[in-house]
Amino acid sequence: MMDIGKINRILIGHDNVGLRSGWFLASVQITVPVQGRQYMFPCNRWLDKDEADGRVEVEVYPSEILPIEKLINYEVSVVTGDVRAAGTNAKVFMQIYGETGKTELIILENRSNNFERGATDIFKREAADVGKIYKIRIGHDGTGIGDGWFLESITLKRLATKTKGSDKKKKKKKKSDEEEEEETKEEEGMDVYTFVAHRWLAKDEGDKELVVELVPDGESDLEENTYEVHVLTGAVWGAGTDANVFLSIYGMERGDTGERQLKRSNNLNKFEKGQVDVFTIKAIDLGELKKLRIRHDNSGASPSWFLERVEITDLKESTTYYFPCQRWLAVEEDDGQIARELVPVDEAFVKKDSENDGQSPATLGLEQKAKSTTYTVKVKTGDKKNAGTDANVFIILYGSKDDTGIVSLKASKINKNKFERGKVDEFTVESVDIGDLKKIKIGHDNKGNSTGWFLEWVEIDAPSVGQCLKFPCGRWLDKSEDDGAVERIIFPAELQTIEYIPFVPYEITVYTSDIFGAGTDADVFIVLYGSDGICTQQKSLCLNKREQRMYFERNSVNQFIVELEDVGDIIEKIRIGHKGGGLNSGWHLDRVRIRRLLPNGKGSETVTFPCERWLAKSEDDGETVRELVPSDIFTEKLMKDGTLKQIEEEVEDPLEVHTYKISVFTGDIYGAGTDANVFLNIYGDLGDMGERKLSKSETNFNKFERGQEDTFTIQAVDLGILYKIKIRHDNSMFSPDWFLEKVEILDETTEESFVFLCERWLSKKKEDKKIERTLYEQSYDGERNSLDGSSLSVSSQDSNANLKEPKKSSLVKAAEEGSLIPYHITVTTGTEYDSSTDSRVFIIIMGPQKVQTERLWLDLPEGKDEFADGSVEKFSVWGLDVGEIKKVEVGHDGATPESCWLMEELTIVVPTKGVMYNFVCKCWLARDKGDGLTSRILNILDAECVNVGIKILYEVTVVTGDIESGGTDANIFMTVFGSNGNTEEMLLEKNGDRFERGQEDSFIMEIADIAPLRKMRIRTDGKGTRPHWFMERITLKNLTNQEVATFTYGDWLSKLKNATGSLVCEMPAVINDEQMMEDTTYTLQVKTSDIGGAGTDANVSLILFGEYGDSGTLPLKESNKSNKFERNQMDEFSFSEMLSLGDLCKVRIWHDNKGIAPGWHLEYIDVMDSAMDKTFRFQCDRWLAKGEDDGQLIRELACANNDILELKERTAYEIVTVTSDREDADTKENIWIILEGKMGRSKEFLMENSSKKRRFERGATDTFQFSSKNVGDIAAICVGHCPKDGKKSSAKADVFWHVQEITVTEMELCNKYFFRCNAKIPLRYKRRDYKVFECAKVAESFASKARSLVPVKYETIVVTGFEKGAGTDANVFITIYGLNGDSGRRALKQKFRNLFERGKTNRFYLETLDMGELKKVRIEHDNSGLAPGWLVERVEITNSATGVTTIFPCGKWLDENRGDGLICRDLFPRY
Q1: Confidence of residue 1291 (pLDDT cuts 50, 70, 90)
Q2: Prediction pTM value
Q3: Dist CA 1188 CA 1407 (whole Å)
Q4: At a CB cut-off of 8 Å and minimum separation 6, what does 896 contact?
Q5: Would you call 535 helix, strand, or coil by DSSP?
Q6: Average pLDDT of 1239-1256?
Q7: What burial letters (b/e) apply to 653-671, b meaning 16+ CB within 10 Å?
Q8: Cα 387 from chain centroid?
Q9: Contact 758, 773 (CB under 8 A)
């Protein structure tokens, strides 16, 4: 086909002929190697006259265009010689080498009878562009009858890219080569190379080689060279092999020899124990050698092979290269590899080896490890029927420089039976310098009984590079499934790549002592420590049980090469130990040596750690773990003259071994003791001591019993200053639950003592059901991460590693700068088949001009592993503040066809902007569903936008008293009151370990914009296993303006320990040492009316509302009269130690309808505030009775004092302007302003500038006052800029006034209107040219709010949904929130009516004082009755005074067993 460039769309269809011609097309994939692109066209629809829209052809657009390796076209002409028996039936292959690399192996066959005598065969092949070609290798595999082949010559045409009129082929479902041949016309711009062979490739002719390397005709600078290969088999028992051995040799700049079988040796029986076999390999000169790859095919009776080393002599240069190996190539030995890559080492190192033969197994493994890359390959077989395979699986890793060749995956480290359904197998692959991993090829040989294999993914981790790549597959490798391929090329999934700090190799040599019983078969592990407590992971030295039995015998020396984290220049200490178990696990360790390479690779340093002690339960002190410090360092450097220089030095002042006395105090409460095994790890600033079992108590035979102290002694290398411990038990034995009071640790060497308070249960049944605790030193004030420090996942860039416990400093800093803000995201998954996904989901929030957050991962909480069908998951993430949100991208990292996800709904709440966006998406994010996308961009215009009220970020610090059992696990609720309203009651998250004795806990909370703060109310629910809490104080720091308010209490919140038994406390705010509220005593006089039956015996309560919040519920219990609330009686109640609420505006009063004749007629209430010396009268004159008036038991009464303020016609306005603080912001001219209000428009006010009193200077704030008619609520202002002298000529074009903000205050009621301008206003003579600014915020004064408090009836309509089971029999409650307060929680009841039935509408009337504009509704039920689940369609509320109806849509279940499980929802109005 002609090259049409990038494909934009395809048209596909059929002719609809024949029976059952309808076709369901899932997708089309088009691979264009010449472009290096692979297109995916998802269709997922019928092409059928009788289905869907009846179309039989359709246009499809690509869902993704993947970059693949770019290939170019080669044309190969092979001429077979015209001599007897010249032809061959063997498989012919070829490889092309050029300046920029080499192609993969190209198989040459297209007909059954290629390569006949005298014939010329032409092949078209696509392969990598290798630049200018310098050699080819061609050969055959010697199969079939008459395999000998006489090759005359080869012509290679390299069709260069993009020339004029070039007909590029596009592969679309491979056609056979014959058809292709006719298509390609001769094209200009091609390079032609000719290779003359004129030789036999036969076992019995010429030099008996089946492979030859050729250089292009006329290129004389490259010639053939002969390499003599000496293979030394080791002298270990069972070292020899009968398998076929293959070798490839690599040169520095000139390619490689390809894989050659080592067939003809000087020995009849090759590769026997202790033998040297010599082979010759002919190849085009490779230059200096850099590595070799040697492997065997694991065939024959005893294939395991121990290779000592390979020596290669370059006969032309007569130089010898030494490639030491000294490892097994065996499935059941070492790491299970049967292929090794070896690098040459300097002769000096090899010679040194042979000299000191007897003393130590000095090996060069470390040098080779450093040059090679070890890949850990994990292969996941899918969890499907018949997914497993018994075939032989192989893998090839392709890097940017080279590939590993075929690696057989034989020895799985995890499972004996490999590649079984749903299992993960782990393999080791080593290779030298193949560059960055680009792709892999994985497949199998289709042998065995059940060969079909479903491969889920391959994960390749290269610790020395610090990169872990995931290659998703999710397809069959099966002749009879999918596309029938049994090998696949897979590219890494970008989103699933993990990067970390690269590991380095260590050579660890372990010397076991020469005394009786010194050896062990236990699992030995090691941890290395650098300075500042940097440490490696704990690493087992043996890979399997067989090695454990082999190593660590008496008087043995065992060497291990391991890759571990880089601990820096100095190894300060090591911890070595074993897990015990098995017979005679006791071990006497003499010393450990650790060798590391010097940074430049020119030598190494060896550190010795003497031990000479037992690690045994029955010897010495019974410890099986020891910490060792270095004694001396031995350095070997390779000098310029090729000699080794050796330096030995002692370690100066190594860390000392300290003795730690550990006292564990078990609490003195019922059931506190435990019989479980207890483990402890201590952390200091120099590192930790590893987890140790507390086995032998020095004080008690029976450890950890109620109320006792157990002492343990542990030796460890100096940990420095201790700051935290981790303590846990294994939950074993009869009663494992344990109440730990505290742990005290005395460092006997320095006599410092450290206290770690706990006072909590470690139990699977009690409290938070945890059996591990991290405890901090009492005086420690650094960062407390309730996360395990180390478990901050490898990619701690994830902005949401765990938000509830932000790394205090960084998150608070970012929040203070305002760069990061919280986003609350709710994701609903659909309920169709296959909707769920276990991929990681992410979201990117985009603002204007390419401003966007980083990829925010929505990681599920522990214990959840998928976004399940119909589930609702909530996340809080911190991301960049992008300003106004324009778009949202949501997607997942699933790259296999299986990972589909149906996203039903997405909600994003931005608290700092006060908006909520709700997307009803109902769209698939899947490779093989819908349009094939796994991420999509949603436009914010498609979302429903709801105003939820702006929140301000505060850093909240809670200080718990340092008093015995001062900590709590009860729920703690906080309400904050300010001059501009109050927050709702908010739960303070316990989050594992907050609110414990003596702690200061800081976290970020979102609090409504109500500043200045006045007071705080804290309530605990008194539940939990430790309900009592000693609360010292709480501070709130506003992160936008750094203002700090402190609330101090210093007492118990407890029914038992508090003198009044109170679970609630109120604290005034203290800001800059000034208390924001006065203390007062409220005296209430309650007058019952003089009407028949007016009195009541019910319990009456009330709440006072004033300028600074509310009083909380005050029960009217202690009256001056013995019988309260009798007809025509005045009762007096006194509440001392209250905080004065300032001017009062309303009272909410109710009774509980108990007793005989509970109906009550209230005349009025008088409230005296002793601090203000003022009385507030609340007139009622109404019934609170079920059977009278409107049947309400609750009344809201407005303050009678407020009526005095009669609004006058005229008023005064104060106008404050702030000029921007930037260059050229100021003006010398005048400014005029007009106010536009709800009741009209003001006249123009001129704000004059005079030379005496300059106004509008840079950064200045100016104040003006004007009297005017009252225009009502101000909605907007018009601002203009005019010349002072009023002349037209003075209005220059480029004079501006840059205004930051303008505030207008109406002086009668003191309502403030804020206008955020931030704009330039040009100087104009005409009055037509001005800027309009809308009101950004209103601060309504208390007097103004109080004026509007008149009783209003609200008609409330609740509509129940129409689905099955939508109705409820539970008790329903509603709370209505308006600008001027809320209604309180009201029960929605009607006598003898069955309410809230499916599809029904119920109507209720509530009377309260006018709440102003309605902001939200909270609807909830108590989950009682038979089927309490309830589907609420919507709530409508009509203010009967104004006739305004506000609709609150819901459309969600209030059901503990559906969706997000909430039975209480906040609904916001839809306008």
Answers
A1: low
A2: 0.77
A3: 14
A4: 456, 457, 472, 473, 474, 475, 927
A5: strand
A6: 87
A7: ebbeebebebbbbbbeeee
A8: 31
A9: yes
